[in-house]
What we know:
about 300 residues, 10 helices, Beta-Lactamase, alpha+beta
Amino acid sequence: MGRSDYPGTLTPWRSTMTMDVTATDAISGHLRRTLRDMSQLDGLSMGLGGLVTQAGSRLVLSELYNLRCELFRGIVIRPGIGLGGVAMQHRRPVSVDDYVRSPSITHQFDRAAMADHVRSAIALPIIVRGETRAMIYGATRGEMTFGDRTVSTATMIARRLAHDIEVEDEVQRRLRRVADEQQEAERGGLSQFELAELNAEIIAIAAAAQDTVLRDRLHALSQRVSGHRPDGAATRASVHLSRRESDVLTQLAAGYTNAEIAERLCILPTTVKTHLRNTMRKLGARNRVETLAAARHAGLLP
């Protein structure tokens, strides 16, 4: 691989992975935070990395942290090529004490390394469910030897990123399911109970999401589903529930117990009871059955 691996001369490509743009942005955000953490390890001062595509055969360096030059950005790396390529090929961390002079790696990217005075570096593949999804590097402008402690700490940071990516994958999977079910609902193909399950799933995803923008989008989607009435009415009742009270009510409508609601919304069972009591009081209901009936009559549930 030669000059075509540097920015400005890349050939067009198409990833074999189907990834929502929002999901890619979220994962890139996790990647940037990980590189910041890597650069703060003892002896390290720089971090760089990128996502791996095409079934683990193509790494594009997209994120740089504390580098002075931009030559690494956009570089395409294949298995076996350079430090990251070796880590990708062997699916394990690989380090070099002297990047430019190391005989254990190829040197197609020395120009970028020398421009930023990279001396020692470590590359770690991010493996999620058996698939290499990203690569992170930690580097320094001074020579250092990567001992067991440094490698162990860097590996823990890499595993945390792998976990974040796995969580994001699950959120996207469930969002796709919700989108499919919502289309069915808009066509009138779902029963009232199926709509309640759909709405409960949306709220559960929102509770697990770390991105505040995504949470707001999910709650807006939940309101659209809740406003789906057989008679076509979409007006909301004068009864005002807090967001968390609405979340608990949505889970209740799907048939979940207090313990299950607490687990799905990441709150305590006692908190669930408190929200239910407040909701019953606002709706003038005495039990769960009356609460659901009153909520549907008020347009708070589908």
